């Protein structure tokens, strides 16, 4: 089973990831009960000192009680340590269970949401969740449920002390609810501003060269300042509100502790309770409410984590990529496109419709058309990265979704318009980072794309690091290595989007050779072209105009047709009998096939 298949079928959703740690949480819950009981050691010790030791003046009693208290504190420290370690392990487990899923969701966001997903970052959301689960918050949350034990104990000490502690608890919990209610919106705004700020930062960095050359540094720094100011503003609002409640709760807890002491003193004067009870009641009340105070201190992180979890769950919605149960053989015969309409991810309006053609093994087809007419939209739909809203794309009669992504990927060679290489070596990039390196296939693809000499000319040859995005190579080198990656392992459907835009004459000749060879090997090759040299190795032509298929057929039939009615002559080098090439017009004409210089 391939890695993506196993990921898809076993992909735990967020609640499942938490649910899998249920027994761990149950253990922490039991530990919390014992820890909270042990937290009564201090008040009980005080009670014994006042009521027993001071009353009896007995040193042996003091020694016994103190030793016993010491042992209890030792247990307390031990259990606290175990609980902290347990919580941290659980948080790591949840993170590990979700990290692959979050990464996959991160990869899918641009494909499913397009521009509407620019602020959606599942990995950042997972980190926000981890900040809470790995911090002090969960321990405080586990302590809150034991509050009734403390309050009950105060009731045991004296009814009126219990009533006072209970009233205090109700007021504090009301403050917590108010805090929760009033913190939600600022927390959401803070997350949105944080995402916006990070987009500003990464966008500027990605385009650092343009920024420098066009003198945009100050403008972008101002933009950053504005994004930063909005972020700090949101942070201040969220922080002010949280600290207002945290301070109020803290002050109220102290006040309540003193109030219990005062009522206890009054009851002691009335001789209804001993001084020990008075002090113990005050400490226990304060102790009962301390987890609430701690939790409120963590409330911002808690709300941020909760909202991050909701966002992560939303990003995962519909991400059901379980691989088809039946494994089809890899395609080897036909590509059939029936009346497809496609739109960018997340968009409603289609950018291309009415495309209809069929190719069989060994066919070569060029796609031409003016800028913005929909050529790239078509190839994205053909390789399965843009959604198909109507019609179908079928390989050997089966729609693309009938193969698992990994498997279909081995049958597809795709060279996008903007070639993106990955940080790694040239060999790794050509072989698509295949886990088992196959040098023979790497060399074969490199030779086909005519990059072998280029690569061996580099100091580290195939082991040369290309840098992030292939930044250490020239645009032409990147394009040729991208071509080798597309040809790697002789895929059945090879789709090249303007493969010669950065190639020199030698590179173009090699491209033509490669297209011919791949076709002879039984591949279908589709080339988006602005320059005729790229379509010299194909015999079919599809013309796209204004988001529609304008013509499809053998090159020699289509070219005269598109030239005659529109007045745009056929490009130089193209077999259009009786027509004369007109380079300048071709470049700006409605169906631009720019003549090769
Ligand atoms: N990611 C996108 N989101 C929204 N609209 C898009 C996106 N990509 C392309 N479009 C729109 O789709 C239409 C077709 O664009 P496409 O890139 O397919 O044209 P093209 O023929 O390949 O152009 P070129 O020759 O300049 O590469 C254009 O109007 C463009 O604005």
Question: How is this structure best described in words?
Answer:
It is a single chain. This protein is α/β, with parallel strands linked by helices. It folds into 2 domains: 13-316, Up-down Bundle (ABC transporter transmembrane region fold); 334-563, Rossmann fold. Helices cover 61% and strands 10% of the residues. The protein contains 23 helices and 10 strands. It has helices spanning 3-10, 14-19, 22-38, 41-56, 59-113, 122-133, 137-143, 147-157, 159-206, 208-213, 217-269, 275-297, 299-316, 375-382, 405-410, 426-430, 439-448, 452-456, 475-487, 505-520, 532-535, 555-566, 583-588, and strands at residues 334-342, 352-360, 364-368, 388-395, 398-399, 412-415, 493-497, 524-528, 540-545, 548-554. The strands form 2 sheets. Strands 6-7-8-3-9-10 form a 6-stranded mixed β-sheet, with helices on both faces. Strand 9 and strand 10 (548-554) form a beta hairpin. Helix 11 (217-269) runs antiparallel to helix 12 (275-297). The longest helix is centred in the N-terminal third of the chain and has 55 residues, at 59-113. The relative contact order is 0.08. The model is unreliable at 1-11 and 564-597 (pLDDT under 50). The protein binds adenosine-5'-triphosphate. Adenosine-5'-triphosphate binds next to helix 14. Pfam families: ABC_membrane, ABC_tran. It is found in: Cell membrane.
């Amino acid at each position: 089973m391939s890695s993506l298949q196993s990921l898809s079928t076993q992909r735990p959703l967020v609640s499942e990831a938490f649910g899998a740690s249920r027994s761990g949480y149950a253990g922490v819950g039991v530990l919390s009960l014992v820890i909270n009981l042990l937290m009564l050691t201090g008040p009980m010790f005080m009670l014994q000192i006042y009521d027993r030791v001071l009353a009896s003046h007995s040193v042996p009693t003091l020694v016994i009680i103190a030793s016993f208290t010491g042992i209890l504190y030792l247990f307390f420290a031990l259990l606290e340590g175990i609980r902290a370690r347990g919580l941290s392990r659980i948080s790591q487990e949840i993170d590990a269970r979700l990290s692959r899923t979050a990464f996959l969701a991160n990869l899918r966001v641009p494909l499913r949401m397009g521009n509407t997903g620019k602020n959606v970052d599942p990995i950042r959301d997972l980190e926000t969740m981890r900040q809470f689960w790995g911090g002090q918050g969960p321990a405080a949350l586990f302590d809150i449920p034991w509050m009734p034990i403390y309050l009950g104990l105060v009731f045991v000490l004296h009814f009126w002390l219990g009533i006072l502690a209970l009233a205090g608890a109700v007021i504090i919990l009301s403050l917590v609810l108010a805090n929760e209610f009033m913190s939600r919106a600022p927390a959401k705004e803070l997350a949105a501003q944080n995402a916006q700020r990070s987009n500003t930062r990464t966008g500027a960095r990605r385009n650092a060269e343009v920024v420098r050359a066009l003198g945009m540094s100050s403008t972008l720094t101002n933009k950053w300042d504005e994004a930063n100011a909005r972020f700090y503003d949101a942070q201040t609002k969220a922080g002010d509100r949280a600290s207002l409640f945290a301070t109020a709760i803290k002050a109220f807890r102290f006040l309540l502790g003193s109030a219990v002491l005062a009522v206890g003193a009054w009851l002691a004067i009335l001789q209804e309770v001993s001084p020990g009870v008075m002090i113990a009641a005050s400490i226990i009340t304060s102790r009962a409410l301390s987890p609430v105070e701690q939790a409120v201190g963590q409330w911002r992180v808690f709300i941020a984590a909760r909202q991050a979890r909701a966002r992560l769950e939303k990003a995962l919605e519909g991400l059901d990529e379980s691989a088809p149960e039946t494994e089809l053989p890899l395609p080897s015969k036909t590509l059939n496109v029936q009346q497809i309409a496609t739109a960018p991810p997340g968009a409603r309006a289609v950018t291309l419709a009415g495309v209809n053609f069929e190719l069989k093994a060994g066919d070569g087809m060029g796609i031409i058309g003016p800028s913005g007419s929909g050529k790239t939209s078509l190839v994205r739909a053909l390789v399965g990265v843009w959604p198909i809203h109507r019609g179908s794309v079928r390989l050997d009669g089966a729609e693309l979704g009938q193969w698992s992504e990994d498997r279909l990927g081995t049958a597809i060679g795709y060279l996008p318009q903007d070639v993106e290489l990955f940080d790694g070596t040239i060999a790794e990039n050509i072989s698509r980072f295949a886990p088992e390196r196959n040098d023979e296939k790497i060399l074969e693809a490199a030779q086909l794309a005519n990059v072998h000499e280029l690569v061996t000319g580099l100091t580290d040859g195939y082991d040369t690091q290309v840098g992030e995005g292939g930044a250490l190579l020239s645009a032409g080198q990147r394009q040729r290595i991208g071509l080798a990656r597309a040809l790697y392992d002789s895929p059945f459907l090879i789709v090249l989007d303007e493969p010669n835009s950065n190639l020199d004459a030698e590179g173009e000749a090699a491209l033509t050779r490669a297209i011919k060879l791949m076709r002879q090997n039984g591949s279908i090759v589709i080339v988006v072209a602005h320059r005729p040299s790229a379509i010299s190795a194909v015999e079919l032509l599809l013309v796209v105009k204004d988001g529609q298929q304008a013509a499809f057929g053998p090159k020699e039939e289509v070219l005269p047709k598109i030239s005659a009615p529109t007045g745009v002559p056929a490009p130089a080098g193209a077999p259009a009998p009786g027509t004369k090439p007109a380079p300048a017009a071709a470049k700006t004409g409605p169906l631009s096939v720019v003549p090769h210089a």
